[in-house]
Write a structure and sequence with these properties.
By secondary structure, this protein is an alpha/beta fold. The protein has 33 helices and 16 strands.
């Protein structure tokens, strides 16, 4: 027994050392290797074929779920029993029959004999397991490209696998995934010889009657596919399993560490989806940071939110769903993508902004919410600029400007005292502001009629959320217009400040948090509001007001404040997110029902927001949050200082820079990673 233990330890050490050596020196180009060899052998699972689950044993969980839905609950944990039965059956049968491998029937026979479970139950489970394998297998696009090269070069292709599934199931899996042309399939379950023991290679060489140096074998298991193939002088190419390759990536490793060792089935499906897409390729050009950001971090948020929204809409049955600009743009794209084949309520993208909806609600007085819009502080803006926002010419109000305490119309609004003066000025000008409001209200109401907002009994509005200001303004507008429209608001999250509107009887629901609860989700959102607004960007500027153009009402938008580079970034990550949604939708079809709870959806992005790598702190920190006010604009980087060295030697300046940064975790990582590591910062923060 001691000798066997030493042999196993030696074997593992030898394999590991060989793997390290091979990973260092394996710079072989697979394309040229294929060209040089006559016969190309592909391993199947984790090489040519990938599963849509993180762990192969999750297939057994799905098998039990399908069985339970159709035939009722089992009296035993099938996943646990099936997982343990395979190695136990292999050990027993190899001793009895001196074979290197077993087949699926023998595994189920072992379960029957050892646990006395009925044959009828087991036959149904076996059939479901095979069907589940068919549905949850997908091709590895990277390896498939080399398979296509083989076919184009008229190479003899074979598939070689240590696999218990019947040959006809393997054939169907390959066919379903585009592997149509090949010479033969060599399975351990059929030949009774395995790659892991080496006998399958000997069997192949004997059957093909060819020299070993004419064969190239491509596989992911270092011992079975590389060491044992080399033992027979077969040429090899090591394709590291995608999940192992992913764990070598710092970003992925940090993400995986946020989850328990044993993943839920939804988590398993998510991780498999991103691994199969982002980590299956090798030797490609530099990874596309922004596409991967969308695919890995944003797609799951969009997917979870819209699935939650669709369920809410099914219960409340609105006449129409309106996605509010600009944050609702990508939400609307996702809604259409996920509900293209369903009976979900009709939807439309509605142009809106706090300024465009709030100003038209002003009548005889300027209330608190109006003041917040009119006097929203922007850096380096003068009294003149603020008046221009509501189409008022400052030159016409010199007397009033002096009256509230300003020196002139060009005085910059710098502090709360200036803001109070500005509020007083607008109260003095309420009559003229009201005139502007009346004009804008007329066009806004026409626009709402045009998009069938007015005329509906119940509408759902969808937005990023936070305080519910626009929903409140729309509700007030309906009162002014004497229209009865029930408005339900659905948001990424609502903060405690929205409670005053709920107390007025408004219906609001948040996906990630409701009135700042749960606190953990709220903290992630509140500390990264601008980052979430970046995630929900749109390809147009903010809406100012509406105007008539022919027989239509159209929005008047500010210039798109995004640079060409930023627009490219937004398009790229949103494409990645939509690609994830398309891929995950296919996974969902196979599983029938995927529930992405808010905690799960926010967890990936929380990793990046709270614990970025240094590289991420630079790329995301360089992003600029920009806003236009009339002809004036201002912008602020998420986490970047213009003169970092000067800042280091001036603590007060450093503090100001840190306080004004839009992404503080990124700022700390970028400029304080050695002085104040995040672990120490968190400790000090919570003392």
């Amino acid at each position: 027994m001691k000798n066997n233990l030493l042999k196993r330890i030696y074997s593992r050490l030898y394999t590991k050392m060989f793997e390290i050596k091979y990973s260092v020196f394996n710079n072989k180009d697979l394309c040229s290797l294929i060209t040089k060899n006559d016969i190309i052998s592909f391993d199947i699972f984790d090489t040519a074929i990938l599963r849509k689950v993180y762990s192969p044993s999750d297939i057994f969980y799905i098998t039990e779920k399908v069985y339970t839905e159709k035939h009722g609950a089992l009296s035993f944990n099938f996943k646990d029993v099936r997982t343990k039965a395979e190695p136990q059956a292999a050990k027993l049968i190899s001793k009895q029959n001196y074979t290197e491998s077993i087949c699926l029937d023998e595994i189920y026979d072992y379960i029957h004999e050892s646990l006395n479970i009925s044959k009828r139950e087991l036959n149904i489970l076996k059939s479901i397991e095979m069907q589940t394998e068919l549905e949850f297998c997908t091709r590895n696009e990277y390896i498939f490209s080399y398979y296509q090269q083989c076919i184009a070069q008229d190479k003899k292709v074979i598939f070689t696998s240590d696999m218990y599934l019947p040959k006809d199931i393997i054939k169907r899996i390959l066919l379903n995934n585009g592997y149509e042309k090949y010479e033969n399939i060599y399975l351990s379950g059929e030949t009774r010889k395995s790659k892991s023991k080496g006998g399958l290679y000997k069997h192949i060489l004997k059957e093909l009657k060819c020299k070993s140096k004419k064969i190239l074998h491509i596989g992911d298991n270092f011992k079975a596919d590389i060491i044992n193939a080399q033992h027979y002088n077969i040429n090899i190419f090591y394709y590291k399993k995608a999940s192992d390759y992913a764990l070598k990536n710092t970003h992925f490793k940090r993400l995986r560490e946020l989850y328990n060792k044993n993943l839920s089935i939804e988590e398993s499906l998510y991780f498999a989806t991103i691994i199969n897409k982002a980590y299956s390729k090798r030797n490609t050009k530099k990874a596309d940071l922004w596409y991967d950001f969308g695919y890995i971090y944003c797609g799951i948020i969009y997917f979870g939110f819209i699935r939650w929204l669709t369920a809410q809409l099914a219960n409340n049955e609105p006449d129409k769903v309106l996605f509010l600009a600009r944050d609702g743009y990508i939400m609307h794209q996702t809604y259409k993508l996920l509900n293209s084949d369903s009976s979900a309520p009709p939807s439309e993208y509605m142009y809106a902004s706090r300024r465009a909806i709030n100003i038209p609600t002003i009548r005889n007085k300027i209330d608190e919410s109006s003041i917040k819009i009119l006097c929203h502080t922007f850096p380096n803006l003068s009294v003149k600029n603020y008046l221009e926002r509501v189409d008022l010419c400052a030159s016409n109000y010199t007397k009033e400007i002096y009256q509230v305490g300003f020196n002139d119309k060009d005085q910059i609004i710098l502090n709360n005292d200036d803001k109070q003066k500005l509020a007083s000025l607008f109260n003095l000008l309420v009559a003229d502001v009201t005139k502007v409001s009346v004009i804008e209200r007329r066009y806004l109401i026409k626009y709402l009629e045009q998009i069938k907002f007015i005329g509906a009994k119940k509408v759902a509005i969808v937005d990023i959320g936070w305080q519910g200001t626009i929903q409140n303004s729309l509700s007030e507008l309906m009162n002014i217009a004497n229209e009865k429209v029930e408005i339900d608001g659905y948001y990424i999250g609502t903060f405690q400040t929205a409670a005053k509107f709920i107390d007025k009887g408004m219906n609001m629901s948040g996906y990630m948090c409701n009135l700042s609860v749960p606190k953990n989700n709220f903290n992630i959102l509140a500390e990264s509001v601008h980052m979430f607004e970046f995630i929900f960007s749109a390809p147009h500027g903010s809406v100012i007001k509406f105007r008539e153009e022919g027989d239509k009402i159209v929005p008047v938008c500010e210039p798109n404040e995004s640079s060409a580079q930023k627009i490219k970034i937004i398009n790229n990550f949103q494409k990645g997110a939509l690609d994830f949604i398309s891929d995950f939708k296919e996974v969902e079809k196979a599983f029938k029902e995927v529930h992405i709870n808010p905690e799960f959806a926010i967890k990936p992005i929380s990793r990046l927001l709270n614990n970025p790598t240094y590289n991420e702190s630079i790329h995301f920190g360089d992003l600029k949050h920009s806003e236009y006010v009339g002809d004036n604009s201002y912008e602020n980087c998420f986490a970047k200082a213009s003169s970092p060295w000067k800042m280091y030697f001036n603590p007060l300046k450093f503090r100001r820079k840190y306080s004004s940064s839009l992404w503080k975790a990124g700022f700390r990582k970028r400029y304080l990673r050695y002085v104040l590591p995040d672990s120490l910062y968190c400790f000090l923060k919570h003392r």
